[in-house]
Amino acid sequence: MDFSLLGPISVATGSGELALGPAKRRSVLALLLLQPNTTVPLEQLIDSLWEDEPPEHARTVVQGHVSRLRATLAGGGAEAYGIELATHGSAYLLRLPEELIDAHRFGELVALARPESAPGDAVPLLREALGLWRGPALTGTVTSPPFAAAAHALEEQRLTATEALARAHSALGQHEQAAAVLYTAAVNNPLREGMVADLMQALFRTGRQSDAMEWFHRTRRLLDEELGVGPGARLKRAYEEILRAEGAGDGKPGEGRAAARTAGGAAPVDPRVSAQGDPRAPAQDPRVPAQADPRTAAAPADPRVPAQAAGGPAARSSAPRLLPRPPARFLGREQQLTALSAVVRSAVPGESPLAVVTGPAGVGKTACAVQWAHGYAEAFPDGQLFADLRGFNEGAPAEPAEILRDFLLALGTPPDRIPTSAQSASALFRSLVAGRRLLVVLDNAQSSAQVRPLLPGGEHCATVVTSRSRLDGLVATDVARPVPLQALGAAEGTALLGAMLGAERVADDPDAARELVELCDGLPLALRAAAAQLTARPRWRLARLAAALRDERRRLALLSAEDTGVAAALRMSVARLSADDARLLRALAANADGHLNASVAASLAGSAPEDIQDGLDRLAEMHLVDEEATDVYTISTLTQLFARDEGSGGGGGGG
Known about the structure:
Elements (H helix, E strand, L loop, with lengths): L1 E3 L5 E4 L2 E2 L5 H12 L4 E3 H8 L8 H18 L8 E5 L2 E5 L6 H11 L6 H12 L14 H27 L3 H14 L4 H13 L3 H19 L5 H16 L8 H5 L50 H6 L16 H12 L8 E5 L6 H11 L8 E5 L11 H11 L11 H12 L5 E5 L4 H4 L10 E6 L4 H7 L2 E4 L5 H12 L1 H5 L2 H10 L4 H13 L5 H8 L2 H7 L1 E2 L2 E2 H10 L3 H10 L6 E2 L1 H8 L3 H13 L4 E4 L2 E3 L2 H12 L7
Parallel strand pairs: 7-10, 7-11, 8-9, 9-10
Antiparallel strand pairs: 1-2, 2-3, 4-6, 5-6, 12-13, 14-16, 15-16
Helix pairs in contact: 1-3, 4-5, 5-6, 6-7, 7-8, 8-9, 8-10, 9-10, 13-14, 15-16, 19-21, 19-22, 21-23, 26-28, 26-29, 27-28
């Protein structure tokens, strides 16, 4: 009979695994195995099983789990192994030979290993010890501080054993094996400075100086960003030793020379990046990127991959290209495209540029961001990532962990190496892309909190976010640069109709074209839906559709095309409102001309002005009303029509 703590909690017998039941029962067993042959008070079990206040019947629940565990172990032949689950007053004792517990065997093997004095013996001992691990420690237990602390302690022992195995390989001159052992662990623990220092030295000893130097710079940036501190003594010592060895010619020749020569107070300049390849370098057309340097390398290479395969054209060709296809018949938005380019070029050294494209539903935020991203893609040769965060779609918004998994897979991370928690996956993502020139487009974000785990940390990475919300939190804490989009004017809207329908058809009826732009509130989504109606009716003149749209009862229905339309887009915005804000929006829709101030809004809502100011601010943040000036608000005609229809139909947002 074998008991496993180093992975999923399990008990294996000669005939298979025992059925241990629910998480709390597994947790009771885990706590008893963590303290074998020791009495564990009932109160300690209760405190560990319930993170919050335990229920009144907690004692009965624990007693029931112990009783069922006792029966399960007995059914698996526990007595033959000298195993007994005994009760001692209000405490329990799991009596068993400790070598049956994998965590105990792991500790004994590690204790026997002497990586410095007997590395040849230490390597098989440590490999056997690490081979006992089948996943994160204590998997399947409840989430509570005691179990988290115990799992962390076991994980720390695993990392220490990994470092010891690498030292044993190094002592034997097996530096490639040492680097391979450390690489995955360092990627998953990017702030563990001692491990990174060991990896740097192993890489240097295999002639991969540039990879070693890049690990230092990446870790230094992460320490500053995550903890606000600089490298510790051990990491700095490893860096300085590599610099001295390079200067003395002790290292293997080649790739690390340029990096090693950049000593001094400032951070060493990455020798692989030329000024011409920097997306922040000047260009004649602010919307056209400078040519990227084809020598730009990716993140530190995996030592398990031959050095010649870590970069170059083959690696470039496998860089992720996840952008959607460019938007069809995209016109205008010169000012916003220029602004996006300016965000990238004017970024403060050491910071990752971040732009937020905001505006109301249907204004063309995604199209603008994707159009710019395609035009600027060559400035990011290590790839372009794209994700729809589903912030304003039917159903729940995308979880950061889901998006991070997609990103890590696209970057070549094996599925079984991807952490399950968003926090760990985010750290791994930032670690992998820290040295790359990568563009990230996060579309349709609901909130700043949803976006933050998805932001890369490297200064050569850039991020563009689109949202109906202003995402003021990103502006405040992450220095995001807003790029607001407004509705199209008469000339731009008419040009879009001409691109969709043909210039001649629009030129035959210019007054009707301008009226269509006005009836569509200048929203590209509405104009494209109108163009779809006219494309399906080639004999209609523009004036006929304009006449139909003047009927406010039919307008929203006509500005729809299958699953695309203004009403559907607005419905997703209103669905994200609280019930009070949705009621306020419906009240504002009753205003005749769409212009109002706080007093008028209060009168329409039947509230005091001071009571609705926060609601007005939230509606403005969601671009459902527009604050033209201090205490001067407007609501678009299409939003008014939608809110009125929702009100008369008994619909409501929020809740």
